[in-house]
Amino acid sequence: MTAASLFRLRRTFPVRATALCLLSFAAFWVAQRLAGVTMVDLMVYRAEGRAVLDGADLYALRATENDLPATYPPFAALLFTPLPLLGTGLMRTLATAGNLLLLLALALLTLRLITGGRRLPHPLAWLGAPALAAVAVWSEPVWTTLRYGQINLLVTVLVLWDMRYLPGAGPARGRRWAGAGIGLAAAVKLTPGLFVAFLLLAGVVAAVRGGAARPWLALARNAVCWFLGATALAAAVLPRDSWQFWSGTFLAADRAGHPEQTANQSLRGLIARLLHTADPGLWWLAGALLTGAAGLAVAVLAGLRSRPAWAATACGMTALLVSPVSWSHHWVWSVPAAVLVLHEAVRAGGWWRRTGAAALTGLFFTYALWWVPHGPERPELHQGPAEFALSALYPLAALGFLVVAWRVALRSGAVEVPHAGQVPEQREPAAAERGRAGRQAVAKE
């Protein structure tokens, strides 16, 4: 390829990637309509909004023909109050369009975190956010998120927005809002609260090592404040529902469904299917504690070694593993995970790395977990080895990702972190330019 043709390709690629993205989104929209998706979870959100407007008992409602309950904190129900004001068709159209835009935002934030805000290097320069979104929309977690009208992409984008403020993530504007994304995401869905633990641990480790703990602890503090503020607002508007939720309902994990269901891709679901029991009990608790500790350790290591994308995704994967219920559509963290492992495989080289990265990415496009028997008869309690393996793909992929993230963080080496109160030496641009000119003059003499 000549230099001129390479330049033309670079110049026209954004247009081609955008056209590919629009074409893929259009095909996706048609496919969802042909599949007759009902967006059942979106209908539950609408019922929650109606319950708030009518003053009904939020956690006593059962919505749709499946008798689905409300499982989110009360603050989420406040956000759903506009939904009953929309017609069903318009609501579904807006939800689909909004989720597609959020997928594009997820792709942009992922690439930005990987590069620290700098220009995208090869091969990411040839991938681009539109092309990434065009492919990712066909993965099982993203497809199912839009099929159900879920809010997983919103929650993930809120968290990744805050990850821009991590040390090593590059310059980020609007620091006064730092922490709002994580805090609001945790007020809507509790699992993003694990990111607060990650930030606190990173700050403590940085302080012990004599580094700058303030950026980590300040982000954690702000996230907690936003969470408490949103929760307090919900308590003021919905005191009865807030008391009911926080006094015990939030601990009732089985309200969301049976733990052994194939769609539950958390460790709890995996252990329930492995042991053929509806109550994995202490086995799950022990596994969750060990996995949570290991996952947070990997995230902290990656964060302190200026690998913000790996740190954020490791924490997100850990949250999915240790949560009592992680439905397959919750696994939209597979998008940044796939980009990270593919980029690392191309950068590091080796056929085995590339094969492993391709396999980890590809399994999220196979829909294999739906190949096994599932349904109200609870056949998952009687799975054979092959069925169990197919229904365990996501947690196994997450554990594999954590191993890769740990190895990447170790290879990154120790990063020099300024001590508290230590300000790196900086010079004005004009002074720096004069210094370069002087050095060049001396060299010529």
Automatic annotation (TrEMBL):
Ranges of biased composition (kind: Basic and acidic residues): 425-445
Q: What UniProt keywords are attached to this protein's entry?
A: Cell membrane, Membrane, Transferase, Transmembrane, Transmembrane helix
Q: Where in the cell is it found?
A: Cell membrane
What segment(s) does the record annotate as region Disordered?
Answer: 421-445
Q: Molecular function (GO) terms listed?
A: hexosyltransferase activity
Stored InterPro entries: GT87
Could you tell me the membrane topology recorded for this protein?
Answer: Multi-pass membrane protein
Segments crossing the lipid bilayer: 89-111, 123-139, 182-207, 219-238, 282-304, 355-372, 392-410
Identify the GO cellular component terms for this protein: plasma membrane
Identify the domain of life.
Bacteria
- What family classification does the UniProt entry report for this protein? Belongs to the glycosyltransferase 87 family.
Full protein name: DUF2029 domain-containing protein
Q: What is the lineage of its organism?
A: Bacteria, Bacillati, Actinomycetota, Actinomycetes, Kitasatosporales
